[in-house]
Amino acid sequence: MPSSMQRTGHEFYRKTRNNSIVKLVRERYIRDDIPCQSEACKSAPSCQEATPTSSALLTGAATHYVVPDISVAIRYLEILEQEELRNIIVPQTVMLSLQQHDKTRTYKRLRQVVGDPRRNSIVFYNEICSDTHVSRLPGESSLHREERALRKLAEWYHHHTGKRIIILSELFTSSSSRGVDVYSVEQYLKEMWPEHTTLQNLREVLKEAEIEEDLDTIRLFSSTDSKKGRPVAGYTEYRSSADLEAGIKSNRYISGIIRINASNRDQAFVTNNNSPLGDVMIVGNEDRNRAVQGDTVVVELLSEVNQATPSFGISYDGNDDEELGYQASVEPNSTKRRPMGRVVGIMQRNWRSYVATIQEDGIEQGGSMHLAIPLHPVIPKIRIRHQDVKSIGNQRIVVRIDSWPVSSQYPNGHFVRSLGPIHQLDTEISAILVEHGIPESQASRGFGEACMREMPIDTPETPWRPTDEELSTRRDLRNIDIFSIDPPNCQDIDDALSVNELGDGRIELGVHIADVSYFVKENCHTDLEARARGTTVYLADRRFDMLPSVLSERVCSLRHRVDRFAVSVIWTLDKNYKVVDTWFGRSVIRSACEMEYEQAQELFNGADTVKGLDKKTAQKLKKSVVKLVDILRVVRERRLGKGALELESSEVKFQIASEHNITDIIPKKELEVHEIVAEAMIMANASVAERIHQRFKDSALLRHHPPPTKERFKLLEQAAATRGYQIDYTSNKTLAHSLERIADQSSDDPALVSLLKTMATMAMNEAGYISSGNTSVDHYYHYGLALPYYTHFTSPIRRYADVIVHRQLMECVSETSVSPSPATPSLLHSNSKLVNLCLNLNLKTRESKLAQRDSAELFQSLYVLQQLKNGPIIMSGIISEIRSNGFFVYVPRLVLKGPVYLKEKSGELMVPLSIVSGNSSDDNAYMTNCSYDSDNQTYVAINTADLPRPIKFQLFDHVQVSLKLHMSHAHRHQVYMTLVGFEQRQAANVKLSTKTLTEEIISGEIQDKEVQATKEKSKSAKASKAFRQTAQNDSVYDILENFRQMNLIEDSEESQ
């Protein structure tokens, strides 16, 4: 309790969005126990000792502390967000002003700055601190009162810590006092960061930016009417906050996140889970009313007669796939009409940094205002100011949106920085990182000096070795055979395995995980950096580590023939491989071998010698590998019997030669040993999850996988039905049996089985981290793995969630509460802190997966670009999805999914002659006088008078395609495909008797001159099309030969 508190009233006026003035009164209690939160505190005892719940965040080593005012917080917030700026004291005065003037977005962004522990920044509650409180004088303006409040705060901090205090302001005078300076942002950057080009340039563009939170709006009685332009393009002013809130409460409006249809950008969807209406469609720019992808919007429903049907064609701009795990609830190809609405307000903007390219025609025109085309097509063009457009004309640049006035067709934004020339590999990798929010600090692979000072010494001259003192506290496992099994050239080895027969029928099975938490203490600099990064990001040709390499590749990595610290889970199993006892604890191990998956598989298959392993090691470990497989096969079958799913994930490896030349794309080879190692990790994760929940009932970090929703499985159910299969997803067990039955019935078609399993994977809800105190026990269940408790424990080198789980497990083992320091409470016992951490880790994990996917697609497009120089690329594929203007084809050989267009943007058909002629060179010459029929779900039929029967393409048909590349200036190059024809194996589905075919040919329904005429028509009609080729002459015999190749066989009943 504070020694004294004084109550005071605070009155202020607030202008609402509809320009009405309201008077608000708030009570405040003035306290004398508000801590400074600085390591340089000169009080005795220090503020932190007097208030032990407070943590010292402002560093003692800093030369100065920065205090921004409201003008800087609004106009130059993006500079405050830069990682270089630290030790910022955000006054409560500024935070209250933002709240009072409805600057919610700015308020939240500023909270994120001080919420990042790496920034050493705080909010100081000067309005309720007895030493810094300032009362408003009679007749004093609010602006002058705020200036006095910030000066008093700065003077108090200077006397309290001895530090120089710099007030940043664009409003106040530049007068200074001893130890306190008032600088503009320009003055501050010139003195403190004179060589930092990015900060200097950013200040220039922000100075000229037309920001949404204009400084004039914080002036209480200012009028903004003169600044409003006339609405354009049908846009309307947003409703007032009071009207929006009242409309939502009365169900007159609904609110939700807006998602733009990538296939048809004229359509958008807003979903409100609390509304029985489901998705509301927003059609056209006028009704979207300046909302941007991801904004939380308020929608007014149109009349019931205004309903629309979603369009689900293939996008002609690429980026057609829904983002991983975040699909709209509208089923693809749905014919259900949906209610329509218009956006009448924005609850929260989702503006972020966007990668963009200057519009080509604007480069030569010059001038200072330019349109930047974002990399993702669902984001509108952004108007930016730049004086030297030619210097960035052919560059990928980063831009941000500042405002979108009702009078502007496009949003206003500003240039942040250039990433490099378009279509260069390093540039495109940087673009992927920006688009998925991977911070620059991680992208540059760098760690700060503070982190590096915490690293253990490990050099060739002085390699790291465990101390005797630490060894005495650990279980010594160096005398048993322990080995790791990983991909080739793995450097960050998280896990190792062991099997030890005890001689009485019992067996010890061990999983040993790198003891990262020993080296990375909670709330140290390295821990804070790892927490912010969340995960190691793996791309096709590089990775961006969560931890410094001295830990991830050396001291923590479980390398062979050296002592390493581990956290071990050791099960004692009976003769039936059932667990009778489990031991958790810290250990020291010495791995006997770093095995690759292929080597372990060869040992299990019976090989006595394996390439890459010396004979003695191979013979020594062969028995252990065989026993390991024997045990974990049984464990896996038991789990599968409870309903665990065997789903599919597409992984590829790119063979890269010098100068980024991609020589091959190799799909991941599935080996049984992959499943065995994965099962060992699943077993360890499940055991640890149950153990930590016993102690941390309200704050165990668990991994939850919710069951799928019915809507997400409709497409899979319909797809399977086209081949006569039934999918029962009543439970995970029935779904597992359905997929197993399909695999048995289609053993001759592994591509179909793989595709169906992949579709089942994509239909699943996304797994995520949860805090056990935030949900009931029955919601801990992991649907995919069929386990009541699950967490992530086995990869602490690359996942921060595992580091937290290690700390919780160690506290369980020691039975003592571990806190980093009295002044810094541990988050292990805080449900609220763990919930926020889980939200951040889920976001980081998801963005990492999306970045990995985009990276793979980038390298696939580079491969196609390079291989096309050697001639056409003809591949076998399987139709994976039918759309209104074509279909998608999955090519297993390259693990590549791409579109086959059968319609132009204009709606004109583009059916290639190759499906009739059988010549791949005809894939860019098109049939005329044909029609297109499709149910948009299961089949596409091509009808023409030149052929006796429609040509029908069905879901899961095997086809041959030619890979092409759509070249783009503003977007990434996109792989697409043209149809060559059916793959020979698939034609058994088409039934046409030889007798009928012969009669039709004889009767003149197919004649050589008609085929030639068709091709001539195609030439003249399509000659102006880009990338089109002239077809070669084919005779009627060529057509007959093509039908033979398509294997149009007689029906068995007709042949009798």
UniProtKB/TrEMBL annotation:
Its main location: cytoplasm. SUPFAM superfamilies: Nucleic acid-binding proteins. Keywords: Cytoplasm, Exonuclease, Exosome, Hydrolase, Magnesium, Nuclease, Nucleus, RNA-binding, rRNA processing. This is DIS3-like exonuclease 1. It is found in: Cytoplasm; Nucleus. Pfam families: OB_Dis3, RNB, Rrp44_CSD1. Its cofactor is Mg(2+).
